[in-house]
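Probable xyloglucan galactosyltransferase GT11: structure, please.
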Amino acid sequence: MRAFRDNMGRPFMKIAACRNQSWFVCASFLLWFLLLCVYHSQFMVGKNLIALLGNHNPDIADNVAKDSGSVDSVSLPKEITESSSTKLRDEGHHINVVFNDRSGDFNLRTKDVFGIQEHGIENFGQHSVSKKELEPHDHNDQARDLIENEAQSDKNLVESVDPEEHIDERVESTSDSCLGKYIYVHDIPSKFYKDLLQKCGSLSNWTNMCDFASNSGLGPHLPNFERVYSNTGWFSTNQFLLEVIFHNRMKQYNCLTKDSSQASAIFVPYYAGLDVARYLWGSNMFMRDSGSLEIVKWLREKPEWNKMWGRDHFMVAGRITWDFRRWTDTDSEWGNKLMLLPESKNMTMLTIESSPWNSNDFAIPYPTYFHPSKDNEVFQWQNRMRRQRRRILFSFAGGPRPNLQSSIRNEIIDQCRDARRKCKLLECTSGPDKCHKPVFVMKMFQGSVFCLQPPGDSLTRRSIFDSILAGCIPVFFHPGSAYVQYLWHLPRDYTKYSVFIPAFDIKNGRVSIERILQRIPRQKVVEMREEVIKLIPKVIYADPSSRLETLEDAFDIVVKGVLERVDTIRRDMREGKNTSFDYAEKVSWKYNLFGTVEEHEWDPFLERGQM
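Here you go.
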């Protein structure tokens, strides 16, 4: 038979034979592969699923799920429902699930996998898993009863994820996570807080506070016609309503308790600032002192007071400390004497401006106009401030203080005018002006690189926190304006986020603000602005009607600071140590900031009388 050949001279018949052999080999391999798959499908419903994933440790394999309901491609074990196969731990029935692969160790640990929250959904890793998905699918009655019992008994468990170790999943009970954090809120008579808001029309001689008291103390929503703000979270907030805002935030605190014996600290929701504001002008000292004397008498008669004689109590007074420190009993003296009462000296008093020379009050940020309800609102605002174009070198919003001899505001206003286009001035007067309209203040700060923050009627200003919110680097002229005040909220190293120009040099005409700021290297300015923008979450109070997910706001930082302070005092009392201070109270600012009372360059600023 003649063999046909191709162009290369090779016979076609030989090529055909080779093709037949190739088909035979492929068919044999396919048959082998199908048999292998059948074998492994049986393997997966057995006890050794881990073997399929590359881990052949039978001890680990016994703890892994096999049926179709899956969590991250892993099912809960059928053997969990069978007491003869798997022993659940007596305390909490904890189950550890561990995977190892060749690329490295990957550990997924769960604590009490049946701890379902009340709404029936529990976070497992980064996935949401419903209760139905967690149940074995064999419909075994005994298993279902076990799961339902576990869910009922452990429904208070919550999951916490360690951000440093994303592979380490933990579910902690509420009681454990609140250990050392419980706060008891005194149920004080309504005349000390609620009734004050109901009579909001009498809280100020010049301002109708009723509108500002709306929205849990945040005030009315701000319109955004000029697109100065973000779309949500902005309110026309009065700086003296911090007591109301803080109280409403406290109602949302995760670790409240109705058992005062369990509390690490006790909150007194007395609206001290709103109370005294009614009588600051034109009233005698007895009217101004009446509320303070009544509240401390009420506290002193409560059993909670005797536990630590009030040293575990704290209160927010939403005005500057000088409104509560009247040194003499004369009608001509300003304010009341709340801060000077023996009971108040035992408590932790929180004010928007503290006394550098006293140890029982602590400064916390003024409320700003921004009260976000979600983390994302904060992140978006921070990013917007990073991108903001700033054409003004420095700006100042404020008015002169002709009656204060030591004030440097006149000199600052003059220097700003002399700088022309490099400085923008928003001059405030006693009448209606742009200074009292948030849109003008925030717009100017957002367009400025530096914002001047000289003392006014007192050392501090709300404008400090408005400028931080706008990403504008604050320029201070007195260490008492921020550095010795907001120790819980601002960095101890003030050079990271601010510029300090001594007020004495401004008063004597020895320095030019414009030249000092222009000499700062561009890279340094960028770093300082980034530090300021990072501070934004720490100096704002979130909307009390919701909660931030991961960020700590000013309220959270205050609570943490109070708890740490009370814990230190409690520990000293247990050890028999003297809880009073072993240094002169007039240098308490120095000890709180530096941990020492040695001489310091700021001593001339903080001598009594240099306010």
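Notes: Confidence is low (pLDDT under 50) at residues 1-18, 42-173.
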